[in-house]
Amino acid sequence: MSGSGESGSHVRQLRQEADALNKEAERATAPEERQRLQDKARKLLALSEQESAMAAGDIYPQE
Q1: Residue at 18 is within a domain
Q2: What angle do CA 30, 22, 50 make, to 5 degrees?
Q3: Which domain holds residue 13?
Q4: Which pLDDT value is given to residue 1?
Q5: Is 38 among the domain residues?
Q6: pLDDT band at residue 57 using 50, 70 and 90 as cut-offs
Q7: What is the pTM of this model?
C-alpha cells in the first residue's frame, strides 16, 4: 500500500518541520516571534498526530 507509506512520510515531514520551527524559536530574540514559531510548531505536531491516527485507522476525519 503506497498510501500508508506516503502518509507516514508526510507525518515525518510535518514533525521535522515542527522541530525546525522549535529550534528557530529558541534562537528568536523577539518574544512575539518566538511565540508565533512555537504556535506554528504545535499546530504542525497536532496535524501530524491526527494524520498518524487516521492512517492507523484510529480516528476518522470530521465531516
Answers
A1: yes
A2: 130
A3: 2-55
A4: 40
A5: yes
A6: confident
A7: 0.76
